TrEMBL record:
Belongs to the peptidase M14 family. SUPFAM superfamilies: Zn-dependent exopeptidases. InterPro entries: Peptidase_M14 (IPR000834). GO terms for biological process: proteolysis. One of its GO terms (molecular function) is metallocarboxypeptidase activity. This is Peptidase. Residues 31-310 form the Peptidase M14 domain. It comes from Luteimonas yindakuii.
Amino acid sequence: MSTTRAFYPIGTPGMPWTEAERAAWLARQRRLRSYADDVLPAIERLRGDWDVVEYGTLDYPPETYPLLALRSRDWNAARPLALVTGGVHGYETSGVRGALAFAQEHGHEYAGRIDLLVVPCVSPWAYERIHRWNAHAIDPNRSFRADSPAAESAALMALLAPLRDRVLVHVDLHETTDTDESEFRPALAARDGADWVPGSIPDGFYLVDDSEHPQPGFQAAVIEAVARVTHIAPADAHGEIIGSPVVAPGVIEYPVQRLGLCAGITGAPYVTTTEVYPDGASATPEQCDAAQVAAIRAALDYALAHPIAR
């Protein structure tokens, strides 16, 4: 497989970025949409049916962002807990919209059966810039670990610290986009002084299971539900999706805790990371949002039907 170094306008090929390169990268970022206009009013409209919890403040001067979660109104610590996270990568729009749509349209279906905690937009600064990283050129979804360098990740971990043992199921909503290949992977290689290995973007929906605690029946149930909404990504010629072997239709595996991924934040028995493909001609934005909602509902339904004691 070919590699290249002369691919990104910031930095010296083969040399990791210093603070100067990070500052040059930050200067290129532009605010393209509004967390205050798009996300906060949508959360506010749900206040009648949900408790709204402010679990921190993201501070990137001169801007600050309240970090908000939706919590079941009939919260009961004796019940298991379902966690839904969106917008860990701020540019992955259907994750934010899907989390909000689930809360608005289907949250009531689980009242009295399982507590729900929905965090629609973990990374509001990146949401506004349609970016993968935070303002320090750090990927929050590789930073869910002790002494996290990402404020977004640290705040979410603090919110969940007293709740981890209750979490039965966690659905983390993501997208794989064309800009992963055109911008974000080249930027990552440049930042780290590494060679860029060009890859391909899968056309369709897929899931990432936890390779250290796989739940194939759970993943299959989610894939089956989403297949009614949008198409499932096929394996490439190597039997892989984004460089990982396909272990079942539409499913790959990562060691989520070792990689510092959001899906590993609780150690829940049932975890999955959704990956929607929003850039193809075969899926509309509405289908992408609906796929996220279908994945959440299928995951919760399966977990409730197959409870595992923590």
